[in-house]
Structure formats: structure tokens, C-alpha cells
């Protein structure tokens, strides 16, 4: 019996000291009495500010959490600011401290990880910073991975695409321009101002009113200088995306793959409000 008593005392005393050091209410209270009534006075929320600061410093230095922050609209500077404000909130707001204390205790006891603070931090960041709160909306609005979604009005139209492919002087340009001039309304989208001028002059020379639109000038075929013609010859970058045409001729359509100017051809092919699209490509 004496040995059993000594063993019990040897085990109980370290447990009491361990509980006091980490301010965690366990089976024994601060007085070691084990009384449930007195144990309630030992607050499991008694977390020292120094512990909070230390954990949140570790939190800020975690590469995994920095990556999560970037995915939620926080760069390095904003992430650091958010952690600083979050730290001040926890240290000066009792309800926030009460909410985090169980997590902090688990971390201190080895049953949790500093990453467990992330959901609470993210909720705070979304309330504190508008860009974080609306990051998903901004991300969806700026998503350029599906170009066809950029032009909902054009995508609703039933369009016919005719692809003219062949070597130089094979007649592909002539066939496409014939469709352009025979249509009630049409637009020619050229890669160069020179080609736009050429189509403009030839079409008007055939008695078909055609306007010219480039980055440098705009010329109207009608004598009054105000009424626009039913046909338009323009450089591809200047193609009006909100005007409706029956036929569009897109010259050098293979330029869609060009890193500098490809956006203009992509916009015309996918977004132009036109019934028939005639694309021309040179193959040597």
C-alpha cells in the first residue's frame, strides 16, 4: 500500500505542474483537489498573448499558408497586413480569443497544427478586405481560359464558317471577296492598312458603296459624309464587334496564333455578329 501511495504521488505532481504550465484545465484543478466545482474556475481560455504572437508568427511564415492566401487574392504584402490585423484582433477581442483558445491549446499539447488557424483567419480576411471577399467573383470575371464565353451574343447566333486555304494566287481571296460584295452587308478584315485601302477602292470602283476604317483614318463612301455604307473595309484590329453583318472576310486568319496580334483575329472569328465567316489562309 505504501509503494502504491508513493507511485500515485509521483505521477500526480508532474501532471499538476504540466497542467498549470500550459493553462489547460484537466482532470486536476490548480489546487489538485479534483473537485468539479473548482475545476470550472480554471478557464481553458487562459492563453497568454506571447503564445498567440508566437503561433501567428509561425502561421505567417508557413509557405503552404502563403500559397493558400495567394489563391484567395492575397499577395505577400496583403497577407502580412492581414496576419498583423488578425493578431491585434485576437489579442484585444475576448470573443475572438475565446474562439481560438481551444485550437491554440491543441497546438500546444501537440494535438493540432498551426494550419488549423487558417479557416478563422480567412473568415477575418474576407470581412476586413473587400478584394479577398470578392476574389472569386473577380477571378471568374477575368477568366480568359474560355474565349468563346467572351462573346455570348455571337455564340447564340447560328453562323457558317467557310475556310479558304491555298497558296498565293490560287483564287481564295477572289472567291471570298465575291461573297463579300454580293452580300447585302459585309465587312473585310485585313491584316494591313494597304490591303484595307485596296479592297475599299476596288469595291467602290465596282459601284458598291464601301467605307474605310483603319487605325489612322476613317473614310465614308457616301457623298453626305455622314451616312455609313452597307460594306466596310477595315484592319482587323478596328473591326466593329457590335455591328451586324451578313458576310465577314477575315484575311490571314492563321494570324490567330500570333502572340502579339492574335487577339484581334480571335475576337473577330469568335465574336463578330455575322451570319457567314470567310477565313482565308495562305499555304505555301
Which descriptors would you attach to this protein?
13 helices; 7 strands; 49% helix
Concise overview:
This protein has 284 residues and is α/β, with parallel strands linked by helices. The chain has 13 helices and 7 strands.
- Give the structural class: alpha/beta
Mean pLDDT: 80
Please give the radius of gyration in angstroms. 36 Å
Straight-line N-to-C gap: 103 Å
- The spatial strand order of the largest sheet comes to 1-7-6-2-5-3-4
Q: What gross morphology would you assign?
A: rod-shaped
Biggest beta sheet attributes: 7 strands, mixed
Helical content band: 40-55%
Write up what this structure looks like.
There is one protein chain. With 284 residues, the protein is an alpha/beta fold. It contains 13 helices and seven strands. The chain has helices at residues 2-21, 36-39, 49-61, 63-71, 76-92, 94-109, 118-128, 130-133, 135-141, 152-155, 172-182, 193-205, 262-271, and strands spanning 160-166, 186-190, 210-213, 218-219, 231-235, 244-250, 273-282. Strands 1-7-6-2-5-3-4 form a seven-stranded mixed beta sheet, with helices on both faces. Helix 3 (49-61) runs antiparallel to helix 5 (76-92) and helix 5 (76-92) crosses helix 6 (94-109). The protein is rod-shaped and about 90 Å long.
Amino acid at each position: 500500500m505504501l509503494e502504491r501511495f508513493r507511485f500515485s504521488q509521483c505521477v500526480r505532481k508532474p501532471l499538476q505542474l504540466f497542467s498549470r504550465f500550459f493553462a489547460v484545465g484537466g482532470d486536476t484543478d490548480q489546487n489538485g483537489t479534483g473537485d468539479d466545482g473548482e475545476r470550472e474556475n480554471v478557464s481553458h481560455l487562459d492563453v497568454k498573448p506571447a503564445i498567440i504572437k508566437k503561433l501567428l508568427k509561425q502561421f505567417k511564415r508557413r509557405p503552404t499558408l502563403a500559397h493558400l492566401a495567394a489563391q484567395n487574392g492575397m499577395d505577400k504584402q496583403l497577407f502580412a497586413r492581414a496576419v498583423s490585423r488578425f493578431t491585434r484582433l485576437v489579442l484585444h477581442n475576448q470573443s475572438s480569443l475565446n474562439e481560438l483558445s481551444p485550437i491554440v491549446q491543441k497546438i500546444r499539447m501537440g494535438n493540432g497544427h498551426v494550419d488549423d488557424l487558417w479557416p478563422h483567419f480567412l473568415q477575418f480576411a474576407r470581412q476586413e478586405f473587400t478584394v479577398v471577399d470578392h476574389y472569386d467573383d473577380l477571378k471568374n470575371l477575368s477568366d480568359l481560359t474560355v474565349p468563346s464565353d467572351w462573346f455570348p451574343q455571337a455564340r447564340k447566333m447560328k453562323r457558317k464558317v467557310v475556310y479558304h486555304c491555298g497558296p498565293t494566287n490560287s483564287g481564295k481571296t477572289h472567291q471570298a471577296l465575291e461573297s463579300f460584295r454580293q452580300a447585302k452587308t459585309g465587312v473585310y478584315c485585313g491584316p494591313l492598312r494597304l490591303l484595307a485601302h485596296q479592297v475599299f477602292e476596288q469595291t467602290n470602283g465596282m459601284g458598291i458603296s464601301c467605307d474605310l476604317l483603319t487605325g489612322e483614318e476613317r473614310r465614308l463612301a457616301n457623298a453626305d459624309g455622314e451616312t455609313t455604307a452597307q460594306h466596310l473595309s477595315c484592319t482587323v484590329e478596328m473591326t466593329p464587334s457590335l455591328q451586324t453583318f451578313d458576310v465577314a472576310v477575315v484575311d490571314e486568319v492563321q494570324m490567330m496564333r500570333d502572340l502579339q496580334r492574335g487577339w484581334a483575329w480571335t475576337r473577330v472569328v469568335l465574336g463578330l455578329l455575322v451570319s457567314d465567316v470567310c477565313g482565308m489562309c495562305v499555304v505555301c
